[in-house]
Design a protein that fits this description.
The complex is a heterodimer. Chain A is about 30% helix and about 30% strand. In chain A, α11 runs antiparallel to α13. Chain A is α+β, with helices and mostly antiparallel strands. The radius of gyration of chain A is 31 Å and the shape is elongated. By secondary structure, chain B is α/β, with parallel strands linked by helices. Chain B has a five-stranded mixed sheet with strand order 2-1-3-4-5. In chain B, a hairpin with a 3-residue loop joins β3 and β4. The chains are: A alpha+beta, B alpha/beta. Chains A and B meet through α4 of A and α1 of B.
C-alpha cells in the first residue's frame, strides 16, 4: 500500500486528493484540500501553493508527510487567460446645460421658468425704484452656500411682496425643504447643486419639481423644453439627449445656453483582427461585442487574434501573449490567441461638465482572451517539487481526461459522458465516448470576468466586494435588529447592528458587508445574474457545441458540471435551465459522493495511478 | 388630544445654536419635532435625556441636548447604548454646526429607514 496525492493546479485554486493505493488496484480515499494557487498557473511559483495544499490534506487525513510516496500533478492545459475593458462612448455636458442629480429632498413643487439671477442680483433689484423694474420679467434665484436658508427665504419673500415674479430657486446646500417652508408662495426648488458657481447667470432656465412619488413631465420631454424656450426644429433635435437623461427623476434643471447640449461621443477604441487559416475578419471594438462574436462564428477555427497597435485593445492582447511567451520560454510570435469572449457592458462614469456630480452609464466592451501553446513547463514544477519534498513527482495526465475520470465517481454516471468545468480563468468542456476517447476545449471567460463585470456595472471600484456579491445573496437592513434577505426571509440579530449598516444593502458573506453605493437591491441582483448569464451560460453553449458529435449540441445526452464556479448558488441552475431547452440532462457532479463539484481533476489523477 | 408623530427633543440648556441646527435637519427631512425643556433635570447627561425623550416620542426617537453634548437615542435600543453621541467641545464652530444639522437629519432618517449621512 502506498499513500498517493493527486494535485490539480488551476488558475485560481490548487486542489489535492489524498488516497491509499493497494497492490490489487483498490483505492481508499483519505482526504482532500483546496488552497489558493500561488503565482500564475504553470510556473514554478505554483510550488508554494502545492505544498500548502498537500500539508492541509495530510493534516485533515491525520497522516504525516513521510508517509507520502508519490505526488501526481496534472498536465495543466497550456492556456492562460486575461481580461480587459474599454469604454466606447463618452458623454459630455457642454456649457452647463442641465442638472439632473435627483436630490433626495427638493423643495416645493411645479415648473418655474425665468432668467437666472444670483441672490446678490436679487438684493439689488429689491433696492431699485419701482419704475426701473420690469415686472413682466420672470426670475430664478440662485443661492450659494454662503447664505443660510433663513436669509434666502427672507429675500425671496421680499421679492414676492414687491411684485417681482420669482418662479423657482436653485440652492447649493441641502436646504430645499427648509427654504420652501418659509416662503409665502410655493415655487419649485432644486438643492444640493455642488458646482453652482459654474451656472451661467442671466441665461434662461427652467426648474421642475414633481409631487412626492412622481417624476417630472416637462423637462424630460423634448417638446416640453422646446415650448418653454421657443426652440426651432433643429434646436429641439439637439435637446433630445438632455431630455432623455432627465427621464424618471423627481426634479431637474435645464439651462438655455447658446451651444449647450449633451453630447454622446463614440470613442475610437481600436480594431481587432481575428485570424483563421484562410481569412481574417476585422472588427472595430466600438461596433460592440455582438459584432465581434458574430465575426468569430464565421471563422472555422481561430488561429490568432491581434489588436491595433497603439490602442488599449492592442496593448491588452500583446500583454497576454507576452506573459505566455515568458512562461513557456518561447518566442512571442509562437503565442497564439485561441479564444476570445467579448461582452457588451456599461461603466458608470462621472460626466464631463456636470454641475452636481452626475454619472452616466457609458457603453463599454469587456474582453477575455486566451492564449495557447504546446506545453506548459510542468517539468520545472515537478523538478522543484521533488527537490523540495524529496518525494517522487509524476506528471500524470491531460487535464480533461483526469476531469472525466474524477467526474465518473459521481453516483449514477456512465460513459459516454460530457463535463463542463467552470473555473476562474476559463470555461472548459470535455466529452468522452464509450471507448474513452476524449475531446476537449478551453474557452476564455469565467469567474474572474464575472467579478470584473459586477465591479464595473455597479461602479463599486472594489474587486473584493464584487467577488463577495458574486458569491453571496444580498439583504436590506430594515432595522437595527433585523435584515430582510433577497428571498424575503427575515433574519434577526441578538445585539443591535452598528449604525453604518442601517438602511443599507449588505452582502451576506462570512460577515455582513455594507454596500455604500446608493443602488437598489433589485439592481444588484439583476447585474449579478446578468453577468453570470452573459458569461457562463453563453460559454457553456459555445463549449458544448464545439465538442459535441458533429457540432450539434443535441447529440449530447447528459452533462456533469464541475469546477469552483459550479459551487455558485445560481450558475448551475441557470445552465441547467438553458440546457434543458436542448433536452440535455445536466447536473452538478458529486465527486466521490461527497465533494460536490470540486476535486474532479485531483481525484482523476489518483485514479489514473491504478490504470 | 391628537399628537402628530414627532421626534421628541429634551433640552436642559440654552444651547440655542445646536438646537436650531437639529430642528433644521429634521425639517429638511420633512418630519415633525417636539421640543421639551427639562430644566429641572439639569444633572442628567445627554444620553439619559435622549432615552427619556425616546420613551416619550410616538416615533420612538429622542434627542437629548445639554450644554456640551447632543445624543440621539431610540426606544428599541433602551438596553444598549445610544445611536449617536457627540461632545461639542471637541469641535470648532463650523464642525459643530454641521454635526448638529446631521444629528437632526439622521434622527429623521432613522424613522424613515434610510441610510445615515
Amino acid at each position: 500500500m502506498k499513500l498517493v496525492a493527486g494535485v490539480d493546479i488551476g488558475n485560481s485554486s490548487t486542489e489535492v486528493c489524498l488516497a491509499e493505493v493497494y497492490d490489487n488496484g483498490r483505492l481508499k480515499f483519505i482526504s482532500s484540500s483546496l488552497v489558493e494557487t500561488t503565482g500564475i498557473k504553470g510556473t514554478v511559483n505554483n510550488v508554494e501553493g502545492i505544498i500548502s495544499g498537500i500539508e492541509l490534506a495530510l493534516k485533515k487525513g491525520s497522516r504525516i508527510i513521510s508517509e507520502l510516496k508519490e505526488i501526481r500533478i496534472n498536465e495543466a492545459a497550456p492556456v492562460i487567460g486575461d481580461t480587459a475593458m474599454e469604454t466606447i462612448t463618452e458623454t459630455i455636458i457642454t456649457e452647463s446645460t442641465m442638472i439632473g442629480h435627483n436630490p433626495s429632498t427638493p423643495g416645493g413643487v411645479g415648473l418655474g421658468v425665468g432668467e437666472i439671477i444670483s441672490l446678490k442680483q436679487l438684493k439689488q433689484l429689491l433696492n431699485d425704484s419701482d419704475e426701473s423694474i420690469n415686472y413682466e420679467e420672470k426670475y430664478i434665484v440662485l443661492a450659494p452656500q454662503d447664505y443660510d436658508y433663513g436669509t434666502i427665504a427672507k429675500y425671496i419673500n421680499e421679492g414676492f411682496n414687491k411684485g417681482i415674479k420669482i418662479t423657482a430657486a436653485m440652492l447649493q446646500k441641502d436646504e430645499g425643504v427648509l427654504v420652501s417652508n418659509r416662503l409665502i408662495k410655493t415655487i419649485p426648488i432644486v438643492d444640493e447643486i455642488k458646482f453652482i458657481e459654474k451656472v451661467q447667470l442671466n441665461t434662461m432656465g427652467a426648474v421642475e419639481v414633481a409631487e412626492s412619488g412622481y417624476t417630472i413631465k416637462t423637462l424630460s420631454n423634448p417638446y416640453g423644453i422646446a415650448t418653454i424656450f421657443s426652440l426651432n426644429a433643429e434646436e429641439t433635435k439637439n435637446i433630445v439627449p438632455v431630455a432623455k437623461s432627465l427621464i424618471g427623476i423627481r426634479s431637474a434643471v435645464v439651462i438655455k445656453t447658446p451651444k449647450g447640449q449633451v453630447k454622446e461621443k463614440v470613442i475610437p477604441a481600436g480594431t481587432i483582427y481575428l485570424k483563421a487559416k484562410n481569412q481574417t475578419e476585422q472588427v472595430n471594438l466600438d461596433e460592440g461585442a455582438e459584432k465581434i462574436m458574430d465575426a468569430l462564428v464565421n471563422l472555422e477555427e481561430l488561429d490568432d487574434v491581434d489588436g491595433e497597435a497603439g490602442t488599449n485593445i492592442g496593448g491588452m492582447i500583446s500583454n497576454v501573449k507576452n506573459t505566455m511567451a515568458e512562461l513557456t520560454n518561447i518566442d512571442i510570435r509562437e503565442a497564439k490567441i485561441k479564444d476570445l469572449l467579448a461582452i457588451d457592458t456599461f461603466l458608470p462614469v462621472k460626466v464631463n461638465g456636470a454641475l452636481a456630480g452626475e454619472t452616466f452609464l457609458e457603453k463599454a466592451v469587456a474582453v477575455a482572451a486566451m492564449v495557447k501553446t504546446d506545453r506548459l513547463p510542468m517539468l520545472s514544477i515537478s523538478a522543484k517539487l521533488e527537490k523540495q519534498l524529496g518525494i517522487k513527482v509524476k506528471i500524470a495526465g491531460v487535464e480533461a481526461v483526469m476531469a472525466i475520470m474524477g467526474a465518473m465517481t459521481t453516483p449514477g454516471m456512465k460513459l459516454p459522458l460530457a463535463i463542463l468545468d467552470l473555473g476562474g480563468g476559463s470555461t472548459d468542456a470535455a466529452l468522452s465516448d464509450e471507448k474513452g476517447i476524449v475531446k476537449s476545449i478551453h474557452l476564455a471567460g469565467a469567474g474572474e470576468l464575472v467579478t470584473m463585470l459586477i465591479n464595473s456595472e455597479l461602479d463599486l471600484k472594489d474587486r473584493n466586494l464584487a467577488e463577495e456579491i458574486k458569491k453571496n445573496p444580498v439583504a436590506k437592513v430594515e432595522s437595527l435588529f433585523h435584515i430582510r434577505m433577497e428571498n424575503r426571509e427575515i433574519k434577526f440579530f441578538e445585539k443591535p447592528l452598528d449604525a453604518k449598516y442601517f438602511g443599507r444593502n449588505v452582502v451576506i458573506g462570512n460577515e455582513l458587508l455594507p454596500i455604500y453605493k446608493e443602488i437598489s437591491m433589485e439592481k444588484i441582483i439583476e447585474v449579478r445574474r446578468s453577468a453570470k448569464e452573459r458569461i457562463f451560460v453563453k460559454n457553456a453553449i459555445r463549449a458544448l457545441s464545439i465538442i459535441a458529435p458533429m457540432n450539434n449540441i443535441r447529440n449530447i445526452s447528459s452533462v456533469v458540471i464541475v469546477g469552483g464556479s459550479a459551487l455558485d448558488f445560481e450558475i448551475s441552475d441557470m445552465i441547467l435551465k438553458e440546457l434543458s431547452k436542448f433536452k440535455i440532462v445536466a447536473g452538478r457532479g458529486n465527486i466521490r459522493a461527497e465533494e460536490g463539484p470540486r476535486n474532479a481533476v485531483a481525484t482523476g489523477l489518483v485514479i489514473s495511478s491504478v490504470l | 388630544m391628537y399628537k402628530r408623530p414627532s421626534i421628541t427633543i429634551n433640552v436642559i440648556s440654552k444651547n440655542k445654536e445646536a438646537l436650531k441646527e437639529i430642528l433644521a435637519g429634521i425639517e429638511e427631512e420633512e418630519l415633525y419635532y417636539e421640543v421639551s425643556e427639562c430644566f429641572e433635570s439639569f444633572q442628567m447627561c445627554a444620553e439619559a435625556l435622549a432615552l427619556k425623550a425616546a420613551e416619550a416620542s410616538n416615533l420612538e426617537v429622542g434627542i437629548g441636548v445639554t450644554e456640551d453634548e447632543i445624543c440621539v437615542h431610540v426606544r428599541k435600543l433602551r438596553n444598549y447604548c445610544s445611536l449617536f453621541k457627540f461632545q461639542l467641545r471637541n469641535y470648532d464652530y463650523r464642525a459643530y454646526v454641521e454635526i448638529s444639522r446631521c444629528v437632526g437629519i439622521n434622527a429623521a432618517r432613522y424613522v424613515k429607514g434610510v441610510p445615515f449621512k
